[in-house]
Amino acid sequence: MNQGGVATTNGGSGSGSVGVQIHQSRRLPDFLQSVNLKYVKLGYHYLISNLLTLCFIPLIAVISIEVSQMNLDDLRQLWVHLQYNLASIIICSAILVFGLTVYIMTRPRPVYLVDYSCYRAPDHLKAPYGRFMEHSKLTGDFDESSLEFQRKILERSGLGEETYVPKAMHNIPPTPSMAAAREEAEEVMFGALDILFHNTNVKPKDIGILVVNCSLFNPTPSLSAMIVNKYKLRGNIRSFNLGGMGCSAGVIAVDLAKDMLQVHRNTYAVVVSTENITQNWYFGNKKSMLIPNCLFRVGGSAVLLSNKSKDRRRAKYKLIHVVRTHRGADDKAFRCVYQEQDDAGKTGVSLSKDLMAIAGGALKTNITTLGPLVLPISEQLLFFTTLVVKKLFNAGIKPYIPDFKLAFDHFCIHAGGRAVIDELEKNLQLLPIHVEASRMTLHRFGNTSSSSIWYELAYIEAKGRMRKRNRVWQIAFGSGFKCNSAVWEALRNVKSSSNGPWEDCIDRYPVKITT
User: Helix, strand, or coil here: 267?
Assistant: First the structure.
């Protein structure tokens, strides 16, 4: 789980004031000022990315001209030459067939995202600011300083008035219990799965792989067993339950399902991502442990993946890459998001003051690995050239920051908090529209942990912005400390599925969020 922002270091540049007296003249305009450099960069990107194709065009033209000039005698001589070298042709053909067979048998099987769903809680579970603060005061667990701290966090959080908290937290006093936690988990997971099965017409018995992730609630029997029992899944299902892996566990679950789909042919995998609030509300006065109360809200998602070739026609997306970064070997990173008891023995999740720097380091490592996989050659060359110049000549130039907008059309940044989105927008040089889905998800649903990236994707679809061959970057941060990325490619113009989380409110968004 991650509530802080991501901080990476950017070089600053000084600027001075220069007085210029402007005279009217007939001289040509300054093209460096008038030409939009964005289009120059796009042209350069197109040229470099298609360099191999452009080099092949003259070669193909030369071969075509030579073939067109051949007569019947030339063709007869070619046939005679092939007859005398029949053994060589057979050997080469056999090697070619063998190589193609090995390639087809060993190549990674494509993984398709058929559809997904997100849970939307009933209206009576909404927690507007006023009710949240009133209930916090009436519990009698928080002193005045803690109440004021929570009020300030809420005001700056980016959350709106329609986020949801579980039923047990609406009671005065709150009634957290194992039974209430199970009830919350069932409502969220079964609610998302019911929508998924209805929209896809897939029978629960057809599911071969099940992966469930929930960081803080891991009962016995497990959450995955609860789903098997509810939907009477088949006895040989490969089921997994991931716990304690934080807000980035949704991408980890997708990665695990992808690996399983490489092994087991012609089957479906379901990934369920959620977090449980009922038993993990903090009732103490330690400031670093109060932030999750203000940010985390009820939510969950269910994703249907397939390795069946016939599902490509109806699938929404194809999985392109998953890149995972784990900084747990470092003690500070390991403890920066840490579940523990305070001095009064009350359990909560503590956030370290080093969280921002640690998240920034994890992000840097992740995008350094992801960059060569997704960035166009033009961006890679620019980055490599500036790096070499800086190293060899000790030049005082800033390192080139790759433009990830050339690699991705849409960005789903984990809605862990307002600072997370602000820092990624700044450091990745994104435009407001690129982070709109993340900001609006945080406003409407709050931090729903590992499922937040699916609410964001649903927002993009509901706005009608997803086009065929668009690429989506889902990026999430989590305790451990981890930073994980998933890259998807749209297989068609994607429309929002029925019973989507934004169905009743998309026309009201985007909204202006006050500072």
Answer: coil
Q: Which CATH architecture has domain 110-506?
A: 3-Layer(aba) Sandwich (3.40)
CB 361 within 8 A of CB 327: yes
Provide the CB-side half-sphere exposure for 342 (13 A, CA). Answer: 16
Please tell me the distance from the alpha carbon of residue 373 to that of residue 376, in angstroms, as a whole number. 9
- Residue ranges of domains in the chain: 110-506
Q: Exposed/middle/buried for 469, CB within 10 Å: 0-12, 13-18, 19+?
A: exposed
Q: How confident is the model at residue 89 (pLDDT cuts 50, 70, 90)?
A: confident
Query: Which helix (H) or strand (E) is 68 found in, with range?
Result: helix 51-68
Is 414 a known active-site residue? yes
Mean pLDDT of all residues in the chain? Answer: 87
8's CB contacts (< 8 A; 6+ apart) are 360, 363, 364, 423, 427
- CB–CB of 485/366 below 8 Å? yes
Tell me, what's the pLDDT at 372?
85
H or E element that contains 450: none
Please give the full DSSP string across 145-171, using - where no structure is assigned: HHHHHHHHHHHHH---S--B--HHHHS
Average pLDDT for 371-400: 77
Catalytic residue chosen out of the listed positions 45, 293, 443, 470: 443
Whether 443 is catalytic: yes
Spatial separation of the C-alpha atoms in residues 342 and 177, rounded to whole Å: 20
Per residue in 337-364, pLDDT tens?
A: 999 999 999 999 999 888 888 888 899 8
Catalytic residue of the set 45, 213, 214, 247: 247
What's the half-sphere exposure (Cβ side, CA atoms, 13 Å) at 209? 24
Average pLDDT over residues 431-437: 96
Tell me the pLDDT band of 393, cut-offs 50, 70 and 90.
confident
Structure token digits, residue 138 = 């009436």
Q: Is 410 a catalytic residue?
A: yes
Q: What is the pLDDT of residues 15-42, one digit of tens each?
A: 333 333 333 444 433 333 434 445 545 5
Which candidate in 280, 447, 470, 484 is catalytic? 447
Which conformational region is residue 448 in: left (phi greater than 0), alpha (psi within -120 to 50 degrees), or beta? alpha
Closest of 94, 112, 96 to residue 104, by C-alpha: 96
**Active-site option among 410, 434, 470, 484:** 410
Cβ proximity of 303 and 116 under 8 Å: yes
Q: Any catalytic annotation for residue 135?
A: no
Question: To which H or E segment does residue 315 belong?
Answer: none
In angstroms, the Cα distances linking 403 to 45, 367, 368, 432 are 11, 11, 13, 15
- Say if CB 303 and CB 315 are below 8 A apart: no
**Active-site option among 45, 285, 307, 326:** 326
pLDDT of residue 93: 80
> At 275, which amino acid appears?
E
Averaged pLDDT, 295-305: 97
